[in-house]
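A further point concerns the way the authors explain their paired sequence and structure data. Showing the layout once, in full, would remove most of the difficulty. For illustration, here is how one protein appears when written out as sequence plus structure tokens:
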Amino acid sequence: MRLRSVPLGVVASLILAVIALTVSARSFAAPPDVPAWLQAHVGDSDGLISQVVLERARALYLKKVAQGAVRNPCYFAMDATRPGDLGNGVLGRRYYVICEASQSFRAIPSGHGGGRNLKGTVNFSNGRRCSKNFGNAMDSELTAGGAYVTREAKTSFKGFYSTGAKQAAAFLRTFIQFDGEGEAANARQRVIGGHAAQVLRAQCMRKNPNSSYADHDGLVPFGKLVDYPGGRSNGCTSWSPADARQIISMVKDNPTTLYIYPESRDIAAVVAHRSQSGGVPYWNASCLKEIGAPKFWPRKTLEPIIAQYKTDHPVPPPQPLPICKGS
């Protein structure tokens, strides 16, 4: 049989095609099966992680490890469909810290984006217990689901607060910046990250010229330190001070992944299911009953509305804080 010669260009094209198919297959390969010890933590009850949330969080982590983007032995997940407040002072555990190498799994409370009520225009606010509204618009204060990687830690001085008996302490809060992908790609512009659920309600300025934090007049802000572990955030992920210290120590100079559920596609699937038959998309049952139906607010829709509201309702210039009595 006579063999026909094949041009080298054709051979090269075939080789490249095979390589491309191989790379594509690897890129979309399913992650390894969930190990038995971790599968034991899967479920829809408080303190457990729902199957779809774990699968996506794990796939994101393994992908970033394979790319060399992260080396941290632990990764995070959050289920924002679950209640943040279970009542009677009990907080819902819906943020997950998973360390497969040490077979460690923790579920802790976390805040969700409070959204906003632009009175007379549109209301996309959320209650303390369940989140109904999600989105990625600038200044929306909404949670956006999807893939994130933790980045740099920034520690800021917020002011002084009383610790009793005429004693005061500086409040320094560390913020972990997130970088997002897809619909969450503007996380850095939105200043979305993680921090302790604490805020200093500044009330007055106190004379303290020897402080390294004093302004040019020798004054420092003084206020009341408020914890809000069961409250809402401006779109960030917030934890109790104790949990925040542990998480921040885990990711400082050692980034890892965070997957937040739901994405807009999950919200669309839940809304579509209300008028169609078929498999029920995952959503926490108690919160779904409470909110009726979730809603995703895309930035292209919401940002023009927020911008117009700002134009129509200009914020008055900030007023200087008064001097503390006896200062």
